[in-house]
Specification:
With 431 residues, this protein is α/β, with parallel strands linked by helices. The protein has helices at 3-9, 20-26, 47-58, 69-72, 89-103, 123-126, 131-137, 144-148, 151-157, 167-170, 172-187, 199-213, 251-259, 263-272, 278-290, 296-309, 312-322, 330-336, 339-345, 356-360, 365-372, 379-387, and strands at residues 15-16, 30-35, 62-67, 118-121, 189-195, 219-223, 236-237, 240-241, 351-354, 391-393, 396-397, 415-420, 424-430. The protein is elongated.
């Protein structure tokens, strides 16, 4: 597999330096990608770079995942309008371990293969540098004129922020440049990978290597920043980022994000976020064109990436949960799914808190859904709808409006799902 050709047909190359293809053809090559450790989970915005590392390893080269412990303490000014908060070493170490665990779903860290991935933290080599030592040994090689010419610096200085740019942030590109120099010298790393917004920082690294070592065989490859077909920001929803950690984004919600992308986005994303072959993707595109209603691109994309990030079991559970609203096995599914998935499926439906004591005492449905939780305006309306077969509890039709409620009805020992007509759902929480 040719790494560059693979990235090119997938639409994953924005810029690359001359000579990088010859380097990759010449020998097994080590390349690194920097990852910001300001959270203990990656989000899907990180996945483009992670997939670059995955393809690199599949092509027989060695990936390095660099957790930016030192640079994360400063904050990259690229594409930012404000300086961000700094984090402490204990938090960095915790975040690093969490990120490595997630990356292990994409990369082989543990085998004895010569191209097994490694993870490094730039805090480990930066923490012992003195300020005077760094500006004497490293800073002297790069001029202020060179640093000021970078777009990330120019945009920040000419931006609307009255605060300008701190010296801390200004030094970021020099620190990132030194990362490349250190990995070049210590790990034989020849290529840096990153997003297109990193090009200025990355070329500072190749320039620093050239000036310090006199060698020209250091290169940079960037991927385009991913956007949606409508111009919106990729990976952002009303509830925030789509995270890889199920504590922050449930597998169901993660699956739903990919399942609901537009046709145009699905065709682009399936190339970037899966390892399906060109032929497999072309076949799926043809199926989509022939019968768009079946949405084969979205379904396959959602499957591939949910299994890769979570598991086959999580994928199957997400598919099952997606069928609750129209499956004839919905009642059984409701009693099987976990609380997070239940809440995700019915996110946004009207909800009411009811007394657990009332339920334990066997309160009648009509009293619960009219007096305690105003699902129905009157008991007469509830009784009429129940007689017509338009009322259900936990997806099971109820014809007796005065049937007693019991704790056996509680989903996850806490919730009752009420359906009024075909489309109106209400979630009761027993407290």
């Amino acid at each position: 597999m040719d790494f560059i050709q693979e990235l090119q047909w997938r639409g994953m190359i924005h810029q690359m330096m001359p000579g990088v293809e010859d380097q990759l053809k010449k020998e097994m090559t080590t390349a690194y990608l920097g990852i910001d450790p300001t959270a203990d989970s990656l989000h899907i915005g990180h996945l483009v770079g992670v997939m670059m590392l995955r393809h690199l390893q599949r092509a027989g080269h060695r990936p390095i995942a660099l957790v930016g412990g030192a640079t994360g303490m400063i904050g990259d000014p690229s594409m930012k309008s404000q300086e961000r908060k700094l984090i402490d070493e204990k938090t960095l170490r915790h975040n690093q371990e969490a990120i490595k665990k997630q990356l292990s779903r994409f990369l082989d860290f543990d085998s004895d293969a010569p191209n097994a991935a490694i993870m490094v933290n730039n805090y480990d080599w930066m923490k012992d540098f003195s300020f005077l030592g760094f500006i004497r040994d490293i800073g002297k090689h790069i001029t202020v004129n060179y640093m000021m010419a970078k777009d990330s610096v120019k945009k920040r200085l000419s931006g609307e922020s009255r605060e300008g740019m701190s010296f801390t942030e200004f030094s970021y590109q020099l620190l990132q440049g030194y990362d490349f120099l250190h990995l070049f010298q210590e790990k034989g790393c020849r290529i840096q990978l990153g997003g297109s917004d990193q090009w200025g920082n990355m070329t500072t690294g190749t320039e620093l290597i050239r000036r310090v070592t006199g060698q020209e065989n250091a290169y940079a490859i960037t991927c385009p920043l991913i956007t949606k077909a409508d111009g919106g920001k990729f990976g952002k929803t009303e509830s925030g980022n789509i995270w890889l950690d199920p504590r922050y984004t449930s597998p169901y919600r993660f699956y739903q994000f990919w399942l609901n992308v537009s046709d145009a986005d699905a065709e682009k994303y399936i190339k970037i976020f899966t390892t399906l072959t060109q032929q497999e993707i072309q076949d799926l595109v043809a199926q989509q064109t022939a019968d768009p209603g079946q949405r084969p691109l979205q379904k396959r994309l959602a499957r591939e990436i949910t299994v890769m990030v979570h598991s086959e079991a999580d994928y199957q559970a997400a598919v099952e949960a997606s069928q609750i609203l129209f499956s004839n096995q919905a009642r059984d599914i409701l009693h099987r799914i976990d609380e997070d998935t239940l809440l995700a499926v019915f996110e946004g439906v009207p909800s009411f808190r009811v007394s657990r004591a009332d339920i334990e005492a066997g309160i009648k449905l009509a009293d619960l859904l009219v007096d305690k939780a105003p699902v129905f305006p009157s008991k007469g309306e509830l009784r009429k709808l129940a007689q017509q077969g338009g009322f259900s509890v936990n997806k099971e039709k109820v014809t007796d409006a005065y049937a007693p409620v019991s704790t056996d009805m509680l989903l996850n020992d806490k919730y009752i799902l009420v359906q009024k007509g075909k489309k109106n759902y209400y979630l009761l929480t027993a407290v």
